[in-house]
Task: structure prediction
Amino acid sequence: MLFRTWAILVALTVAAMLIGAGGTAGGNLLARGALLGITVLKASAVLRNFLELREAPRGWQAFFYLYLALLGGLIFSALAVSGWHE
Result:
């Protein structure tokens, strides 16, 4: 299970590198959103598999996944509103 998770994390890292190399230089909000989405996916994979959140009670799982979603949404909203992507 850990090797599979590691391979997924490597693939997501390569995808983020490709998006970052080609899409964020011009301030593309969609590319930055994709990078943020990949980051949230990677964080949830680490929480679930390496920190064994999958074996924690449902309440803890919900708390951490909602926290990641909220944090990602707030960061993306701040990017969109601030005009930093332009």
Q: What stands out?
A: Residues 58-82 form the longest helix (25 residues).
